[in-house]
Specification:
Helix content: 40-55%
Bound molecules: serine
CATH class of the largest domain: Alpha Beta
Distance between the termini: 67 Å
Number of strands: 18
CATH superfamily of the largest domain: Bira Bifunctional Protein, Domain 2
Number of domains: 4
Structural class: alpha+beta
Largest sheet: 9 strands, mixed
Strand content: 15-25%
Length: about 600
Amino acid sequence: MKALTSAELRQMYLEFFASKGHAIIPSASLIPENDPTVLFTTAGMHPLVPYLLGEKHPEGKRLANVQKCVRTGDIDEVGDASHCTFFEMLGNWSLGDYFKEEAIAYSFEFLTSPEWLGIEKDRLYFTCFAGDEDAPKDIESAQHWMSHGVDESHIYFLGKKHNWWGPAGMTGPCGPDTEMFIDTGLPACGPDCSPACSCGKYLEIWNDVFMQYNKTADGRFEPLAQKNVDTGMGLDRTICILQGKKSVYDTDVFTGVLARIAELSGKGYGDDPDTTRAFRIIADHVRCATFILGDEKGVTPSNVDQGYVLRRLIRRAVRYALRLGIPEQSLQHVARAVIAQYCEVYPELSRNENRIITELNLEEERFSRTIRQGLREFEKLQSRLTGKIIDGASAFRLYDTFGFPIEFTLELAHENGLEGDTKGFEEAFKKHQEVSGAGAEQRFKGGLADTTEETARLHTATHLLHAALRKVLGNEVEQRGSNITAERLRFDFSFPRKMEEHEIREVERLVNEAIEAGVDVVCEEMSVEEAKKQGAIGLFESKYGNIVKVYSVPGYSKEICGGPHASNTAELGRFEIVKEQSSSAGVRRIKAVLHEK
Ligand code: SER
């Protein structure tokens, strides 16, 4: 086994797949294109969804890359040895070209050949899909592994929870997978120890997904026109194994970053468990924030969507920096270490260095103000207190009104010999979420938007808005992005200037006219050509397969779309544009809401 550095592994992986006829494609942006169901790119396959569904990729049928990814579902676990919010995924794809046999042969060769990673075959274990009502048992994959000399005892069949991947959002390509594990040499945790358990003996290093199904909005798995392969190998995790380290934070990707945190804090990574955890949280969160701020589609901190996640990452990093005694306005130095580590592979980080540093500093400043104000409010609260308990509603008010983190309230309570009612806080928090619907806070965990009736109504409103904009501003208006939460729609479109007030009102009026007309929404499936012929608008070029769904509001709008939608426009209530602003050069952004009638 070779103890490769991260740079060597990236290069070796791409070299290997180039030698097998794969085109090397660049990493896509971290912000998904026109996909309202996820906040960030979470896997290498995500930007490739249209091609997995059958659209032709300009680079051919065999692709490989290193994709920057963000997954925030486990943010609370960050600080342990393995969790990170940002990671790089090495991946190779077959778009209707090779399938199980070659995919497995490539994986096996790359893992075991002395020319490549050179991992001893006997340290590897494999899992295959056990089969259920949606898809049969994957005996074929097991046979392919065995044809390379893998012993049957090293192969396990597991259910959907383990050996099925996708779709990345609510619908889309997915399928059974076969996963590769390395035995770390730790003792088995019991007689049933297997790659299915998380005791740490077996670590997953690579996943080959056989994407041959499309999950539909009503939960069916229909066969895809083409059989694809989608693989993913976590870069940090793999070098951790190759370098024989116990934690991804001990690998070369974090060396410079952790050293900088040590300089700033005067403490050592590894001094004690709390310090180690704080170092890791700062390193992970600043790395992730640096990539989000430095992305081609750079997002800045805010209270919604990606901006909200970014804000949480930065503020959490600040909190742990404070704990380590790091002076204010220091995250910029950690970010510079991240940029130095990654700028050769991701030159956008150097290009956007100014933005990264400026926004980090600004957010730190805002957060410092919040903390100062929160401390004053805490003192007031304390002076009014009769007992020894800070009740949940008060703690929630500090959080909700002043942005004061609950952890701070709990810590202050503790320092002052008081107790915080965590449970009460959680209840107040939950109640607030129920009232406010699915905001970014809810998407933060799973990364997925919901498909409730509210979002379906807003989706239909988006179509009406799109059509009305074209009517009022002209056909140069084209969709550039769409994002829907339960509370509002957000629509980005090409247009060179600010809209006039009377244009905004006219668009609003047209949408409300369609709503008042109470028109049934019609969904039809047809070929792309037919959709074009019928004058449907939508993203022909980049998103869908050959047969597309076309949603019409007869007389008002006809658009290619995956749905779901309201069944009649009357369900929409009343439409209001609440904001019209610039999104980027030549692109305007509208935010709009629906009110009950
Ligand atoms: N999409 C699969 C995963 O994320 C393989 O890349 O594991």
